[in-house]
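We modelled the chain as a single entity of 484 amino acids. Its sequence is:
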Amino acid sequence: MEKLTARQRLLCLFDDGKFEEIGALIQQRHLLNKNKDFSGDGVITAYGTINGRKVFAFSQDSNFLGGTSGAEHCKKIARLIDLARENKCPIVGILDSGGARIQEGVLSIEYTALVARKWSEISGYIPNITLVCGACAGGSAYISSISDFNIIVENQGYIFLTGPKVIEKVLNEKVSFEELGGASVHSFLTGVSNQTATNDLDGITKIQQILSYLPQWCKGNLSYSDYPISKRDTLPVLNTFLPEEEKSAYDIKKIINYIIDADSFFEIHPDYATSMVVGFARMGNQPIGIIANNPFFMSGSIDYMGCKKAARFMEICDAYNIAIIFLADSPGILPGKDQEVAGILGSGGRYFQSQAVATNPKITLILRKLIGGSYGFMGPKMMGTDLNFAWPQAQIAVVGSDAALEIIFSKEIKNSKNPTKALAEKIEAYKQHFLNPYMAASQGFIDKVIMPDQTRITLLKALKSLQNKVVTKLDKRRNIGSMG
């Protein structure tokens, strides 16, 4: 499919291809009164409906001076942001811009800063989504990085602060657009893009899907209808789903798709930090967020990238009061020098804080194991989670049996008359006393141990019980985040 024009993208975005354009007669400053072919200064600003809901959107036009952002171009976008904020409606930015317009000097970079400030102000207030359809540098690149959701079109969209030509000129280093800021970089390595689209139309479809899970603004109601829970929500397949070998891998996405409403899972960051899965879904018609360990990758261990991914998704769900369900199965935090140097403390700290201050409904289900540091990352009671459940085979402990026996009973086992028998006895005793959910349940940290086939029914009831949750926050200016 060929690259669409700026106007075609908006026609595809809005219902029935209809929208109301504003600012169409605005011209670039030095063209005023000289050119009757009004350009709108390289950006189309408009409003219309998406699935019947009012949305504001702008689309940059790379056919006009490379889509660069001059003063009038930026003022149009800034005004559109104000309209979206004042009317409590989502806003979409379709980016295709070479950055600040050189010909306008300081005016260009000053008004680019205005757009960045206004885009930052709406963070967590109204949903904001960007779609990168071309080579975007400078201001447009920054907008994409601070959006709630950012989608990039593969082999067409690129995000970077300084382009390949500037890098070659300044550093004498040749680098391609793809290597510098393509989909492979930002979807797999940096996480700046939440989704990769195959073309413009696919990216627009993803925007429409994301909006379907979100309210109009942070205090708006989520759109869903009541759902009657019945025996049909029992899932016998889950009773035998987990591998018999407790260290065997399985894909958590299969469990997710069993317990949610059919075909409702929309994964966020599918290619980034794959041992952690986050995304939107529906349960009983209600939009929810899911944060899950995936034992299919690194046994479900939590690394610094997974912490960043989960923390940001938690913040988004909390901002728009979307309930979170944690699906926990992790052997712990991934150890090693690489993780420490990469900043596991900073990104882990941000994830802890995002959970601790979140006031949206939170539910945890421990499937197979939750060992050591991973316990704190996956919605424990003391992090403010409302309801915690576990399957009967769930293992909850500071360390696994092998490590525990090595630390606590190594001398006793070594000095016994029959070390093999002593080891087996200690393992069994450790499992009986620690590696099960009942110790946690006896202390009130697990609310209920449930059979796997009752998972969907239990979660549906939990979600219903928390629909009117209200928490009074501390009266303060803001949180101060970690370096993660």
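As a brief sanity check on the tokenised model: The chain has two domains: 6-211, 231-400+435-465. The longest helix spans residues 71-86.
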